[in-house]
Amino acid sequence: MERRALVTGAGGFIGSHLAERLVGEGYGVRALVHYNALGRTGWLADSPREIRETLDIVAGDIRDPAFMRRAMDGVDVVFHLAALIGIPYSYLAPDSYIAVNVQGTLNVLEAARDVGAKVVHTSTSEVYGTAQRVPIGEDHPLSAQSPYAASKIGADQLALSFHRSFGVPVAVVRPFNTYGPRQSARAVIPTIILQLLADPRRIALGNLAPTRDLTLVDDTVAGFVAADRAEAALGEVVNLGTGYEISIGALAARIAEEMGVEPVIEQAAARVRTTGSEVERLLSDNRRAADLLGWRPRLAGADGLAAGLRSTVGWFRARGADALGDAARYRV
Ligand SMILES: NC(=O)c1ccc[n+]([C@@H]2O[C@H](COP(=O)([O-])OP(=O)(O)OC[C@H]3O[C@@H](n4cnc5c(N)ncnc54)[C@H](O)[C@@H]3O)[C@@H](O)[C@H]2O)c1
After folding, report:
1. Quick one: average pLDDT of 32-43?
2. Are residues 260 and 224 in the same domain?
3. For ligand 1, is residue 14 a contact (CB within 6 Å)?
C-alpha cells in the first residue's frame, strides 16, 4: 500500500518542493498549508496541475493541538517543516517563534505519538552558531545567536525527547542554507538576484564576510525522503549540506558573473546584524548523511554551486517581479 505522508509547511519554499517530490516517489500526500482568509495555498498554486490534483490540501495552524491531531489521521509519516524562519523578525516577535516553532512542534509530536506516525523533523544549521571548528559535525556544540535559532533548538530537543521518552520514531534533518526556485525574496540569494534584475549596477547587502554552505533545494528534499526510508536515522540528527563554503561577498560576485553584470557590492548598515547575532561561518560535515541515509548532494563544490545558481537565476528571471511579491516593502 502507498505510504501516507503529511507535510507541514507545504505551501512554503522547501515544503512545496518536498510535497511534489513525495508524489513522484509514490507517497499519498496530505499537504498542510497555513490557514489564511484568502484561501491561498502558497507555492502549491505553482505546482504542475497533475501533481496538485493528487494532493490532499488542508489549511490550518500547527499551533492548534486539536486541528493537528485531526490532520494526522491516517498518516504514516509527518515531514514537519512549518515554522517561522526569518531571523530579523525573530528579534521583533520572539513570542511568535516560541508559539509556532516550539509549541507547534510539540503539537505535531503529540499527534504523531497518538497515531503512531513517524516524524521527520526539520532543524537548521543556525542552531550551531558560528563554527567553533570545521567542518561542523552533528556533535558540534549548539549556540543560539538569534531567538529563531533558540526556538529551533527547543523544537529539535522536544523531537529527540519524544523518541527517547516515548519511542516515537523521529529523525531530525538539519539542512544548511538551502536555495532555489520559490525561495523568499528576503533570503540572500534571491535578494542578490532580484536587486541585480532591478539595477545591474549595484547591490546592497549585510555583512559580506560570513560564509555559508549552500544546498540546492532538490538535493535538500532528497535528503528528507532518504531520512524517511533509513531505519538507521531513527533518534539521530543528520546534517544536510554540501561541505563547500563561500562568503556572501564572493557569492554576490559569482551571481553577478552568472548574470553577466558588474555591480558595485556595497554593505548597507540597515542590513548588518549585530556582532553577537551574526553567524560568521557555516560549513557542514555531511558524512553522517552519507553513512546513515546514503545521501550525497548531486550538486556540490564550486561547479555544483555554479550549476545551481544558473538554474535559480533562470527561474527568478522568468518570474521577474512576480517572485518579488510584496517582499521589497517588508521592513523585516
Ligand atoms: N530555507 C533554508 O535555507 C532553511 C535552512 C535550514 C532549515 N530550514 C527549515 O526548513 C523549514 C522550511 O523552511 P522554508 O525555507 O521552506 O521556509 P518557508 O517560510 O517558505 O516555509 C515555512 C512554512 O511554514 C508555514 N507556517 C508558518 N507558521 C505556521 C503555522 N502556525 N501553522 C502552519 N503553517 C505555518 C508558512 O506558511 C510557510 O509556508 C523550516 O522549518 C526552516 O526552519 C530552512
Report:
1. 97
2. no
3. yes
